[in-house]
Hints:
The chain is of the alpha+beta class and 236 residues long. Helix content is 26%, strand content 29%. It has helices at 40-58, 74-94, 143-147, 205-215, 231-235; strands at 2-10, 20-24, 29-36, 102-111, 114-120, 124-128, 135-138, 171-176, 182-187, 221-229. Helix 1 (40-58) runs antiparallel to helix 2 (74-94). The longest helix is centred in the middle third of the chain and has 21 residues, at 74-94.
Amino acid sequence: MNLNFDERPYSGKSFRPRPEIHLDSQAKLLIVATPWGPRASARKVIDRMNEYLSLAREDDEATSPFERLTCLSTQANNLRIAALLANEAIYREDNRTEFRSGVELFAAQMSENALDWIQAGNPQILLGRKGRTLLPMGSQVDLSFDLSRDGEILPALPSQLLGLDPTLNLNVNGFRAQAGDRVVLLSHSHLPEVVFTMKDNQATIDTLSKELARVHPDLAFWLGILSVGSDQEEAA
């Protein structure tokens, strides 16, 4: 199976940073790093993760200061350790004396038909599969949602970031992918109801963007779709 990715930002009247994107088609790896602060922090996260993941691909017994969890696959463990190393780099190099930057993170990698992913903060993660409505897989409550009152939705404000603490609360999961699956990534503080009623064939960049902008025209969001294709499609 192969991976394709498309993305689109929407500015509205509020601020939400656009993420740095890294897609390695050969390694079947996607990293989405959203900087809150200097954009260089997001690039640093991507670079640190790539360093470890490249090493792990070459050496199955690559060492790290972080233990491997027996409940996770090798691929999931590699993603988790790579994120922890990136978190440590931001904390020690950028935020040791004062908070200057933080990074929201989504990273996914596929091996055969197993797609493993990790998440800290936005984007929200939904799965679109043939004949079904979008299924939430990684929902996040940020500070904007937490602090909003009486129907008002405050501008984007993250609650989980890499680099603010030497430890990191990561969401780690995965699923058996099928050709045609779409992983919808949406940085948004309050997903509107229409998202959960959409069928997989409606989960396109254009359709989702128009609906999100219609429901909350003032709210900034970022939308990305990771599409899983068959090897035959790639060869064609």
